[in-house]
Design goal:
The protein is of the alpha/beta class and about 600 residues long. About 65% of the residues lie in helices and about 10% in strands. It folds into two domains: about 1-325, ABC transporter type 1, transmembrane domain (ABC transporter transmembrane region fold, Up-down Bundle), CATH 1.20.1560.10; about 340-370 and about 380-420 and about 535-585, P-loop containing nucleotide triphosphate hydrolases (Rossmann fold, 3-Layer(aba) Sandwich).
Length: about 600
């Protein structure tokens, strides 16, 4: 029983935390529910003296009316208290709590380190934001009400029965110790099943999102049906988990129902024995059987209701784990950079749960308003270096400075304000072109937006669209070509006018015509900026002020193009390999 109350108390404490300003309303609701069920139990208990007075040989009508009136009065108090208690559920309070909780989770997503964010699958986050909040928080009021009813009403009736006949009360009490091992068994199975259930559903959501996003590719390779293996496997896994859960979950409630029925039979058997031996009045036994029969249905569902708390606790735990992730912290003294040179000094970094260092003791200096290219094989740490500048995650050793100031001393919003990124894979929102560009500077005028679009060489094709800048571009910009999407993302970066620009090979996936247009747009973007280019095509970064050659998270070579070619090292070998590929002809391949 201690474990049962301990689990419920944990849920109670979490509810108070999540309820926030409404915590007192939740406490008030519980108190009113408790009062309601105490009086409901007393109303039922009045059945003893009512029947006794009704069947008394010396029938006194006033006595019958007294106990009937008490039943009515106690029932009225119970109904009124429950009606007031349900304000918490039906007066919009629960909706406000879930809304506030989703807002808190939204803020957490904006402020948590991105490496922590990306450790979650999209389906997991969807599950926490939707089903965990709805299934957890919205259920707490109803679940608390039902479990209080099951706990309070029977114990009030049993308490009154002690004053009527302690033997009958003891027989009723015998069933409660038997509930404890049943609940422990169900809880152990339930915890395992719930964890697997939530994980299976999160994986299903992730697989579904992946399937929808990859549908064009799947159609191209004729794999949209049963051969969409990830989605099919996830669907099948959810079905298996549900089947196993149903099979395991049906045994404890069945045993619980059996215990309740056996208790009722025991009351009848021993009660009749006491009646035959003239130690118990038949009318008292009749009242006891009627009252306990009234309780058999809710008592039989005890384990299912306690299981709701396991469900709620699991949902709460998942929500709390996300909320407990530490936000990106800005350390004192908070400073604002005046120039935008970048310095890495003895920087070491490894991703969570990875022993191998992704960045290993790297030091370099990038002067203000210069272009630096970062090259190297896939997985060598190029992108990680740029992410660390934006505090994607905090480094384990060393320092990163902008304008001579440690980035951990720069307010996070101020840091991001000064950095623009143009990715190879462009993400545009399902909104108008105007709003997609404007989000870089919400206060921008139409003229400023058009000027940014002109600098990014996308104004002309936007003007030819049906609604011009008010044209909706579709999910992830699906209504535009790759080059058009890229130029809109560059227009967004131009409008932001950040002092540091990071280019993650923005022309790699484009055709020649689009590449020329995008390159012109980039040239306008990077004027008078500190620029970092993650490069795969070495021909595009020949004129860079500095080239960092990264290998296994370390700086292998550093210098300008001609100097690195003269060294005949790793960069030279990469350059020669690309030149050979460039010079291949179709005949040579044949």
């Amino acid at each position: 029983m201690k474990k049962i109350f301990s689990s419920m108390y944990e849920v109670y404490k979490m509810t108070l935390v999540f309820a926030g300003d409404y915590a007192n309303s939740f406490k008030k609701s519980l108190i009113l529910h408790t009062i309601s069920y105490i009086f409901q139990g007393l109303a039922f208990a009045m059945f003893y003296p009512f029947l006794k007075a009704l069947f008394n040989k010396n029938f006194v009508i006033n006595e019958v009316w007294l106990y009937f009136s008490l039943m009515v009065l106690f029932s009225f108090i119970a109904i009124f208290s429950r009606w007031k208690a349900q304000d918490f559920d039906y007066d919009g309070v629960m909706i406000d709590i879930t809304h506030k909780l989703r807002e808190e989770l939204g803020v957490k997503l904006r402020t948590m380190p991105l490496d922590k964010l990306f450790s979650y699958k999209t389906g997991e986050l969807n599950s926490i934001f939707s089903s965990n909040i709805d299934e957890g928080v919205l259920l707490i009021g109803i679940a608390s009400s039902l479990i209080l009813q099951i706990l309070v009403v029977p114990f009030v009736i049993i308490g009154v029965t002690f004053f009527i006949d302690y033997r009958l009360a003891l027989i009723m009490l015998i069933m409660f110790p038997l509930i404890i091992p049943l609940n422990s068994w169900k809880k152990r199975v339930s915890n395992e099943d719930l964890k697997e259930y939530f994980n299976a559903n999160a994986k299903l959501e992730s697989s579904f999102i992946e399937y929808i996003q990859g549908l064009p590719i799947l159609k191209a390779i004729n794999q949209v049906g049963m051969n969409a293996k990830n989605l099919q496997t996830s669907i099948k896994h959810v079905k298996e988990v549900q089947n196993q859960s149903i099979y395991k979950a049906k045994i404890p409630p069945a045993l619980m129902g059996m215990i309740v029925e056996l208790t009722l039979l025991s009351l009848l058997f021993f009660g009749l024995y006491f009646v035959v031996n003239d130690t118990l009045a038949l009318v008292t036994l009749g009242a006891c059987i009627v009252l306990f029969s009234r309780l058999t249905e809710p008592l039989s569902s005890t384990l299912s209701l306690l299981g709701m708390f396991d469900f709620i606790q699991t949902a709460y735990t998942r929500i709390k784990e996300l909320l407990d992730i530490k936000e990106i912290k800005t350390y004192e003294p908070i400073q604002t950079p005046k120039s935008f040179d970048i310095e890495f000094k003895d920087v070491e970094f490894s991703y969570t749960n990875q022993e191998k260092k992704t960045i290993n003791n790297i030091s370099f200096y990038l002067p203000n308003k210069t272009m630096t290219a970062i090259v190297g094989n896939s997985g060598c740490g190029k992108t990680t270096l740029t992410k660390l500048i934006m505090r994607y995650a905090d480094i384990q050793e060393g320092t990163i400075k902008i304008g001579g100031i440690n980035i951990q001393n720069i307010a996070y919003e101020e840091l991001l304000k000064n950095i623009s990124v143009v990715f190879q894979d462009v993400y545009l929102f399902d909104d108008t072109i105007l709003n997609n560009i404007k989000m870089a500077k919400p206060s921008a005028s139409i003229q400023e937006i058009e000027e940014a679009a002109q600098s990014a060489y996308c104004h002309d094709f936007i003007s030819e669209l049906p609604q011009g800048y008010d044209t909706k571009i579709g999910d992830i910009g699906g209504n535009l070509s790759g080059g058009e999407r890229q130029r809109i993302s560059i227009a967004r970066a131009i409008l932001k006018d950040a002092s540091i620009v990071i280019l993650d090979e923005p022309t790699a996936a484009l055709d020649t015509q689009s590449e020329v247009a995008v390159q012109k747009a980039i040239n306008n973007l990077i004027k008078n900026k500190t620029v970092i280019v993650i490069a795969h095509r070495l021909s595009t970064i020949k004129d860079a002020n500095n080239i960092l050659v990264i290998d296994n998270g370390e700086i292998y070579e550093l210098g300008k193009h001609n100097d690195l070619i003269a060294k005949r090292g790793k960069y030279y070998n990469m350059w020669k390999a690309q030149q050979r590929i460039k010079n291949w002809t179709l005949n040579e391949r044949i």
